[in-house]
Amino acid sequence: MQQPDHTADVATILIPADRLQAKVAELGAVLSRDYAGRDLTLVSVLKGALPFMADLMRAMSIPVQIDLMEVSSYGGTATETSGLVRILKDLSSSIEGKDVLIVEDIIDTGLTLNYLLRYLRGKNPASLRICALLDKPARRLVDIEIDYRGFTIPDQFVVGYGLDYGEFYRNLPFIGVLKPEVYGAG
Q: Looking at domain 17-153, which of 3.40.50.2020, 3.40.1360.10, 3.40.50.300, 3.30.70.260 is its CATH number?
């Protein structure tokens, strides 16, 4: 059986791989400066943010610890959030008294991240900030302060570099706009 060519499902490349890597290096340098001399824990939200966090921590020159969480907020369809958040995998260790940076792939409505912020604040970290690769403000339903932002993008359905549709496309090395006919919007 022939495998589908997932790059053919991409209408346009919004952010090429070289621009992604340059931005990750820039963010890594800024974070290394801002957190110098502090114990920093990066918390990645699975699964989409994993490639970003892996590259980001390698771009940082300071020691960091990492932890992983998995949350689900998608209800009726694979392209729309339900607003109902479930924690599927919680932190492995305590963040009490630690500087914590949530590493997110994309912030659109902000509903999931808003829930996550409230939840993590209840664990009493010394500080809690956000680093998001992609910000899609056109879809924002709650006000979220993003401390470190990679790119602001238009309201388009994007895949690649961890972002998926139906669990595919995560391994694309760029951020691309998925053709609407692929996800039933065309």
A: 3.40.50.2020
